[in-house]
């Protein structure tokens, strides 16, 4: 059971080839590394099976570690619209898993995550990973850096918790309405 000042944050880098994730525990203004790993999906040819596996793995992480909050990397538009659609579906499935357990979710753009970790919104995956290694005293970095991208989302959320700089938070319709009163047209 966590106290008000102690939190577990699950960070997710959604993908249909590899889903990276990382977990940290925070206490006041300290971070402690819990885990980072990835879900390998490239061997599965069926896109819908991949989505089911993303949902199941996210639920498993939630049920095992009981995160208080989830930080997720937002999909970005590269060169291929189909790739973005697939990433959006992967993100949506991971978000649905968290929402099904009533866990608040905050979405961060890749640039925002890189900026929070390295101070440079255009940093490479390697630069982000090395900075995380220093910050969290990781002994070694994984071969694939998708898991460090997930961990970076969690650390970014820690740095941005309680600030106005958060991008999009989802904890339910009532919270959306309260946060966006000026956008709601009343008759």
What's the helix count? 6
- E-strand count: 6
Going across the major beta sheet, what is the strand order? 3-2-1-4-5-6
Find the CATH superfamily. Answer: Ribonuclease H-like superfamily/Ribonuclease H
Report mean pLDDT, rounded to a whole number: 86
Based on the structure given, which CATH architecture is correct?
A: 2-Layer Sandwich
Q: How many separate domains?
A: 1
Would you tell me which CATH topology applies?
A: Nucleotidyltransferase, domain 5
What is the global morphology? Answer: globular
Low-confidence stretches: 163-167
Distance between the termini: 44 Å
Query: What share of residues are in beta strands?
Result: 15-25%
Biggest sheet features: 6 strands, mixed
Helix and strand sequence: EEEHEHEHHHEH
Q: Supply Rg.
A: 16 Å
Helix content: 40-55%
Label the structural class. Answer: alpha/beta
């Amino acid at each position: 059971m966590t106290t008000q000042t102690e939190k577990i944050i699950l960070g997710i880098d959604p993908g249909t080839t590899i889903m990276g994730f990382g977990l940290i525990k925070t206490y006041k203004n300290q971070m402690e590394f819990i885990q980072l790993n990835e879900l390998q999906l490239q061997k599965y040819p069926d896109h819908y099976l991949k989505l089911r596996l993303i949902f199941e793995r996210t639920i498993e992480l939630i049920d095992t570690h009981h995160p208080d909050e989830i930080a997720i990397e937002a999909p970005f538009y590269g060169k291929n619209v189909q790739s973005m659609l697939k990433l959006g579906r992967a993100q949506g499935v991971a978000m649905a898993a968290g929402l099904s357990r009533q866990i608040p979710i905050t979405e961060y753009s890749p640039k925002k995550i890189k900026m929070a970790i390295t101070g440079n919104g255009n940093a490479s995956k390697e630069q982000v990973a090395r900075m995380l290694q220093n910050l969290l005293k990781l002994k070694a970095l994984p071969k694939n850096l998708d898991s460090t991208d997930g961990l970076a989302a969690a650390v970014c959320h820690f740095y941005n918790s309680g600030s106005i700089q958060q991008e999009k938070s989802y904890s339910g319709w009532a919270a959306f309405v309260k946060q966006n009163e000026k956008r709601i047209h009343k008759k």
